[in-house]
């Protein structure tokens, strides 16, 4: 389907300021709203042993005031004009985003530039201590005290070996968070929060020339960092296992997680693996009722009461991961065997034409909805393509690449990626079952 004129395509400009900041802009005057999206090419994968969690900690620090904006003003200024803002951190990037009525574009750009160029002016020990405690509480809430909450750190550690940039969790460890000094935090900011390590996307109801002038005025004077360390090479061969970990915990039902090491997000094999996940489970948060896993494990054999399976695209090495929650009374070994039987069936039973039609339709709907229907989604996808795929034009390639994958490629990808020698298993059982 490459070159198919019926598929959506985004027109955008791509330029760099003298200090290295990459500026992507796409005008869309359908509604009077504009989105600003700033991605920094730094996530937990850039951290070093003993200093984990700094990338995520900085996501919090960036909202605690900057040179000319007092603490709380980043949220307050945008919310007062009817806008929305937030941020997130992953293994390979940190992003900051806001959208608001389009007459507030200059305000949003000024706020982002003020903290890129002036965060350290407002960063002190009190702020560090406060946000350190906030992050620790977040870790307790979403991981330590949440049923099944530690599955992802366990899976990362199993799929990616010690020393690999994706081995440790993004939120870091309690010990490293406690040990982080103000100097550590300041050094991290000076190293990675530089304009030549960032991508700024502006999408929506904005005049491109005016927006460019504002970006140059507010960001142009921020000096670059010519000594940003190169990202660790995340590429690693498949075929590391199998591994299996059994966790007795305070969980209501047995849940079986399966993780598979997958190739670089930009590869054809990654596209085929993503389509394999779509055939197996669809593209929703949980498996769609027409997907292979749902039909065989939930509806027909009644081994599971819910299931999820997804492809997480990452630079260097991606992660294919999913789980099933066993029905009450179903033995762990029966649920586990059934789960892997369905995953491995894709290599032995290539997708039917009906399965491929369903998977392609789901992928097309999900991508169009996420990437082309809102200015916020489009801006985020532009930045993502520039950082993850090193090419913002990937936004127009993603859908045709996936729709071009055929049933035989899906089956071959399943045989290579979703195979026992490339599989990590993490099983949570209720403590009462011990």
Low-confidence stretches: none
Supply the CATH architecture of the largest domain: 2-Layer Sandwich
Q: Tell me the name of the CATH class of the largest domain.
A: Alpha Beta
Number of domains: 2
Number of strands: 11
Distance between the termini: 53 Å
Shape: globular
CATH fold annotation of the largest domain: Cytochrome Bc1 Complex, Chain A, domain 1
Helical segment count = 15
Reading the helices and strands in chain order gives: EEEHHEEHHHHHEHEEHHEEHHHHHE
Please indicate the percent range of residues in DSSP E strands (runs of 2 or more): 15-25%
Q: Which structural class matches the secondary elements?
A: alpha+beta
On the 0-100 scale, what is the average pLDDT? 94
Read across the widest sheet, the strand sequence of neighbours is 1-2-6-3-5-4
